[in-house]
Amino acid sequence: MEYRFSEKVANLKPSAIREIFKSLTDPTVISFAAGNPAPESFPIEQLKLLSDEIFSDQSVARRALQYGITEGYTPLRELIARRLKEKFSIGSESDETIVTTGGQQALDLCCRALVNEGDTVLCELPSFIGALNAFRACGANLVGVPLNESGVDLNALENALKTNQNVRFFYTIPTFQNPTGITATQETRKAVLELCTRYHVLILEDNPYGELRFAGREIPTIKSMDREGRVLYCGSFSKILSSGMRIGFLCAPREIVQKVVVLKQVNDVHTNLFFQMLCAEFLTRFDLDGHIEKIRALYRRKCALMLDALDRFVGENAIYTRPEGGLFIWCKTPDLSPSAPIVRACLKQKLAVVPGEAFLCDQNGVSDGFRLNYSMPSDEQIEQGAKILGQVFSNRSLG
Amino acid sequence: MEYRFSEKVANLKPSAIREIFKSLTDPTVISFAAGNPAPESFPIEQLKLLSDEIFSDQSVARRALQYGITEGYTPLRELIARRLKEKFSIGSESDETIVTTGGQQALDLCCRALVNEGDTVLCELPSFIGALNAFRACGANLVGVPLNESGVDLNALENALKTNQNVRFFYTIPTFQNPTGITATQETRKAVLELCTRYHVLILEDNPYGELRFAGREIPTIKSMDREGRVLYCGSFSKILSSGMRIGFLCAPREIVQKVVVLKQVNDVHTNLFFQMLCAEFLTRFDLDGHIEKIRALYRRKCALMLDALDRFVGENAIYTRPEGGLFIWCKTPDLSPSAPIVRACLKQKLAVVPGEAFLCDQNGVSDGFRLNYSMPSDEQIEQGAKILGQVFSNRSLG
């Protein structure tokens, strides 16, 4: 039989990252391609204890295994809202916070709530592939705005706001951006909010890595500067507790959240309730900030290891970012020529990286960069992988 | 600030069921309005044991808390596919089975994959509100096809297939339908498949209650009769293990599943992995069929209690179905007049039922029925609620 698909979906390709993951079944391949948190960062002992307690009290267990409300487990919503307020000055009287099935669901449902087919969404260039594909699946017209060292290029952003019709929102990861690791300066953030205000465009601020700072000074989120309800803020427990449990959240103007809740109800009714309760108990009884301190120390060490190895093996044969947090380093060819030959040569030498093309708005575009991850590989793999990268770059400069 | 929403979402109302649930915070209200499985049906002891084991093995726990693949945890997918094959003769060489975040996600993503705005989806009348709203959120044009005692009205179905343009699929719950409790006969199922084949229309067969038969003989699913890849089949563990864990599945032609996987990736990346592993272990190590037998016995007793009480208190003042399984009885006014006054009078007497309007394709339609649930209320509440219903109906026939 032949099947006819909806137009929005017919052209969607499986994510390039996903295809790379599938090729990683070869255990001799070193992967710098992951987007995963380090497995040693999961607080297994504490989760085991809390899980035991939930299952040991019949009435609590029955609640955890029964249907829940779409907005999320109320104590968890309150704990998240309080944490956002106290740590990040996020959330006004007119905002509401709901639990989502990972940060990804918040991105998808916000776009479904706001975007008609053909409407424009502005994205950083390069940007997170999962968000780009979610927006594509809504039929959005993606327009990329280049990044520089201090965040999005403000002239390019203004130009995009000025020249595009029906811009519904600007999607940004200001802190430890995926894939570049770049953190927008406070000045850039202020200017982004001002520009979007001037052009009446919403901001979707995605902050899955914000708590993973291991160097430099905290910079306020854009949402914390928002006085009029222009910013939708997404976060997640994926990088600080567990990614497999799929718990994220959205803090946004109540009117928008209400529409997202209606969509969430028809999408998955609610997020796994047992893990919402686990999460709430963890926040109440354990020291999440202390736990995050340990993850920061781990990534500080891993990132330094990778940068040191890159400095030794690659050096001036490439350009790479020096992130102050998060999971990623972005590496570019020094002459800004296409990076695809480098990526292919690495894979031949059994090093997997994510090609920059995956992060472009234009699915036929060409990139001069690729993404490196330091949270997943072992110390030895970091050394060995950087060596391969060094060889590939030096063969290239020789060839 | 004023917000502008996408057209598809702007007109979506929060589900009527959900609003009723919120009104149920009054503990003196007896609820026949639930759609929940009985809390005593959750196998807490077994899940506790398996959960303990996962958390006690570091490498297993790390896997359970890490990102997984979008299609679902491979052992669980295989166990579901094998069970569908062995127990229900479902699944051909060209089909694929994936795990979804509850059956609801499968309905939503199938519709997103297949339906362009304005395309028609045929639905039973009345039908499951969660499905109707999911289809609405995709911009589908809903056309209702009435049910009779043996399932969907075949003449009406043929007429709908003949007269509507761009019909993308027929959505049906042939077994213990929600909200009516009606089970389509084998003849009706065959005829549905033949009609949809003749008019080149897909079938979305939703079977969340199929394992809850407590009377009568098993009837083959429509999917089991499908030879050409016309039927998409959704199922769920919500009514046989736990609804709060949000694990369902889709078995459908590979080409369609591949598109659904792309959508699932941008929607929630994957379903809670810990509970996928728990589910797989349960299926491997415990006797799910034996567990389901106990749930059937429970609902057999509960349903008989409610029917007996209705027979005593309501009798011929109303028309109600006598289901052979599932969770619901459908009750109608004897003269097929609007049921809204009955529903309102019940709520005044502190009995909550779900008004039939919630289950219509036409959001401004009028219903002669309402839904009763027997899995959640206690034996005493069933007796007391039926008494209230009897009084309301007899006041009506007196008035």
**What pattern of helices and strands is seen along the backbone of chain A?**
HHEHHHEHEHEEHEHEEEHHHEEHEEEH
The N- to C-terminal Cα distance of chain A equals: 51 Å
Helix content of chain A: 40-55%
User: What is the CATH homology-level superfamily of the largest domain in chain A?
Assistant: Type I PLP-dependent aspartate aminotransferase-like (Major domain)
Quaternary form: homodimer
Beta-strand percent range of chain A: 15-25%
Computed structural class of chain A: alpha/beta
Q: What's the mean pLDDT score of chain A?
A: 95
Poorly predicted ranges of chain A (pLDDT <50, ≥5 residues)? none
Largest interface: A-B, 85 and 85 residues
Cα Rg of chain A: 21 Å
Named CATH topology of the largest domain in chain A = Aspartate Aminotransferase, domain 2
Total count of helical runs of at least 4 residues of chain A: 14
- Strand segment tally of chain A: 14
**General shape of chain A:** globular
Write down the domain tally of chain A. 2
Largest sheet of chain A: 8 strands, mixed
Main CATH class of the largest domain in chain A: Alpha Beta
